[in-house]
UniProtKB/TrEMBL annotation:
<dbReference type="GO" id="GO:0016020">
    <property type="term" value="C:membrane"/>
</dbReference>
<dbReference type="InterPro" id="IPR002123">
    <property type="entry name" value="Plipid/glycerol_acylTrfase"/>
</dbReference>
<protein>
    <recommendedName>
        <fullName>Phospholipid/glycerol acyltransferase domain-containing protein</fullName>
    </recommendedName>
</protein>
<dbReference type="InterPro" id="IPR016676">
    <property type="entry name" value="P_lipid/glycerol_AcTrfase_prd"/>
</dbReference>
<feature type="domain" description="Phospholipid/glycerol acyltransferase">
    <location>
        <begin position="97"/>
        <end position="216"/>
    </location>
</feature>
<dbReference type="GO" id="GO:0016746">
    <property type="term" value="F:acyltransferase activity"/>
</dbReference>
<dbReference type="Pfam" id="PF01553">
    <property type="entry name" value="Acyltransferase"/>
</dbReference>
<feature type="region of interest" description="Disordered">
    <location>
        <begin position="1"/>
        <end position="31"/>
    </location>
</feature>
Length: 311
């Protein structure tokens, strides 16, 4: 880029020239930063227009995720929820691993905050490939965006393909039972399904990383469920909170609770014999071990949190 010549403006007859204070002029480093951001944006748009970008077999568009999907989440993460991430070193820097987390909050913001934490806080900037319910991929636009962000259906074949290829995979075994539970049951883990996530980890030999999330339960305190409306819309529940649907879209603004996301010590699966994934007792015991680790960590984090909204 060539530097443009700066020509001073001459005042018109009868006018006095005004000078701009030196302090109000942008610093050279700020100007360079804006120029770099503009150049990056133009390069990004050029690549999108020409098709010069990569998409993997699951539809994951890394560049689109980093430039379009993650940036709007950062104000929520940094300013609104003030997320503190603990134990990020427990997540492997490379290779396959399965992150298993508790689920809550009426809407799955906990999954999005966890994905952002792993990308922004981990030294390797890892992308979390989430396993989602089929409802997510049936929703117009949402399903397409989820695919482009690297997420796929919560099924063992897809999970094992991702883990075997060295991806970091995230699963929320409570499913809708966790995210849609009443506020009175906050931080009480629901059943972890049949342990399918443990089977996937055993077959691929990757570590299981327990993840405990405190703060999401309070963003939309669910005090009721309009079941007839949920059935009509094909949703697992239709939430009633202190502010929604009474205040309409304003009631959909999440409350600014203080969040903690802790990644626990990995549970190794590499030393088990081939065929271990077909042992129902082993799968049950490992599932219960991971669930209990998350539950006890939740209790500990809650005792450390001084105030729900101030931290």
């Amino acid at each position: 880029m060539t530097e443009a010549q700066i020509i001073p403006l001459r005042p018109r007859h009868g006018q006095h020239r005004t000078t701009t204070p030196i302090d109000s002029a942008p610093a050279p480093e700020e100007r360079d930063d804006w120029e770099q951001q503009l150049a990056d944006l133009l390069a990004f748009l050029r690549r999108r227009a020409t098709g010069d970008y990569e998409v993997d077999e699951f539809g994951f568009d890394r560049e689109l995720t980093e430039n379009l999907f993650l940036p709007p989440l950062r104000p929520l993460y940094q300013k609104w929820f003030r997320v503190e991430t603990i134990g990020i070193h427990n997540v492997p820097s490379e290779g396959g691993a399965l992150v298993v987390a508790n689920h809550s909050g009426t809407l799955p913001l906990d999954a999005l905050m966890t994905a952002l934490a792993l990308h922004d806080e981990h030294p390797s900037g890892r992308h979390l490939r989430m396993l989602g319910a089929d409802l997510v991929f049936r929703l117009p636009l949402i399903g397409t965006l989820a695919r482009k962000a690297g997420h796929t259906l919560a099924c063992n074949p897809d999970a094992e393909r991702l883990l075997s290829s060295g991806e970091l995979v995230g699963v929320w075994p409570e499913g809708f039972k966790g995210i849609g539970k009443p506020f009175r049951d906050r931080y009480k883990l629901q059943r972890f399904g049949r342990g399918g996530f443990v089977s996937a980890a055993l077959r691929t030999g990757v570590p299981i990383v327990p993840c405990s999330i405190v703060g999401a339960e309070e963003i939309y305190p669910m005090i009721g469920d309009i079941k007839p409306l949920a059935r009509l819309l094909g949703f697992p529940y239709f939430p009633v909170t202190p502010f929604f649907p009474l205040f309409g879209l304003l009631g959909a603004v999440p409350l600014p609770s203080k969040w903690y996301i802790e990644f626990g010590e990995p549970v190794s699966t590499a030393d088990y014999e081939p065929g271990a994934a077909d042992d129902p007792m082993l799968v049950f015991n490992l599932t219960d071990q991971v669930r209990e680790t998350i539950q006890q960590t939740l209790y500990r984090l809650l005792t450390q949190r001084r105030n729900t909204f101030l931290g």
